[in-house]
Write a structure and sequence with these properties.
3 domains; Heat Shock Protein 90; 6-stranded antiparallel beta sheet; 24% strand; 46% helix; Beta-Lactamase
């Protein structure tokens, strides 16, 4: 057994050794956010500078962080942990996990905060690489299906061109208009196909902002009301009270919701049961940890066999009329916001798709 004096001396030597030799970046910060002490690992990565603010050293920024770990620990005396992104002394981006630990004075008050950070850049880069590889692999798996889709579009364009040519030759305006309408429709399909393919294959820059999901749903209804009415489909929204505004990439979420609504319109349009009063309802609901978007239709539904394959690759239930990229883009968008895409369906009865989004997603990358 070590006596108390020997144990204290050993503890002091151990603390010094750990501080000097730890691979983690360690900085001691005062109440003015000034860094007063750093270890060698910190100095090698960030800078050998004290009496400089933590946000200047870690982020190369003159403005304090909005959600500052150090301030939280000074305020409540509790350790806090988060994932961060900063800039090294060589002006390179660095990802790290930071833990703020209170350092108490003799009276038990928080005198300083020790910020310990671990470099996770390599792990983040590997995860991003795997995600990109997965997207490209799915695109590769769908090449044959896309080629078949393009072939069908070209055949449709040839038919439209033939209608236009014969309409001009025979001076039949109605035939000419029908042929031109066919050409326009198939050109729109080509445009949609290319945009979806590019969006899925690449990592796009996100622009998070506070979004009212109820307003977003209303925009989608206004956008597709005419198409739904022409097909005899009732399209509506329902937003429950208490649904929070969320930090989202509005454009990406708009596209995701639009994909679900157009799929629902197709499901109702192609439903062989003509006795139904077809309807689609977009529901916005609060959740304990965020919000849920639901798109429910009473269309043709999805068979049990097809449900197993629907969100895995670019599988589509639309045959020659679809590529399956729309749902994969929606799934990608949900995951980029820290959420998930799921669905329930019964063949012949309808389908409900759900996007669950947390209220505080870490980083939005689409």
């Amino acid at each position: 057994m070590l006596d108390r004096i020997t144990a204290l001396a050993m503890k002091e030597r151990l603390s010094t050794a750990l501080f000097d030799n730890s691979p983690c970046h360690i900085a001691v910060i005062d109440r003015n956010r000034q860094v007063v002490l750093t270890n060698p690992a910190f100095e090698r990565t960030f800078a050998n500078a004290t009496h400089t603010t933590c946000h200047q050293l870690y982020k190369d920024c003159d403005i304090p962080c909005d959600d500052c770990l150090v301030e939280h620990t000074f305020a409540d005396g509790i350790a806090h942990l988060s994932k961060e992104q900063g800039v090294t002394r060589c002006n390179k981006a660095i990802f790290y996990e930071a833990q703020a630990i209170p350092l108490l004075d003799e009276g038990g008050a928080v005198e300083h905060v020790v910020l310990i950070s671990t470099d996770t850049t390599r792990t983040v880069e590997l995860e991003q690489g795997l995600n990109q590889a997965e997207r490209l692999a799915n695109v590769g798996l769908s090449t044959a299906g896309l080629a078949h889709t393009i072939k069908n579009i070209l055949a449709g364009l040839e038919g439209g061109i033939y209608m236009v040519d014969t309409g001009i030759a025979k001076e039949e305006p109605q035939r000419l208009q029908s042929g031109w309408k066919m050409v326009q429709d198939y050109i729109h399909q080509v445009e949609s196909l290319v945009k979806n393919l590019l969006s899925y294959a690449r990592q796009s820059e996100s622009h998070p902002e506070s979004v009212d999901l109820g307003e977003l749903a209303d925009e989608i209804v206004a956008l597709y009301a005419s198409k739904a009415n022409m097909a005899g489909i009732a399209l509506s929204t329902h937003t429950e009270a208490g649904t929070p505004h969320l930090l989202l990439d509005r454009a990406a979420m708009h596209a995701a919701l639009a994909n679900l609504v157009t799929n629902a319109i197709d499901a109702c349009t192609w439903d062989p049961n003509l006795d139904k009063d077809h309807s689609i309802v977009i529901s916005i609901k609060p959740q304990d940890s965020g919000a849920r978007i639901e798109v429910a239709d009473n269309g043709t539904g999805i068979s049990a066999e097809n449900q197993q394959r629907l969100l895995v690759t670019t599988f589509t239930t639309k045959g020659m009329r679809g590529t399956g990229l729309g749902l994969l883009l929606t799934k990608k968008t949900a995951a980029a916001h820290g959420g998930a895409l799921s669905f329930e369906s019964r063949a012949g009865e309808g389908t409900t798709f759900r996007i669950d989004i947390p209220s505080t997603p870490h980083g939005v990358q689409t």
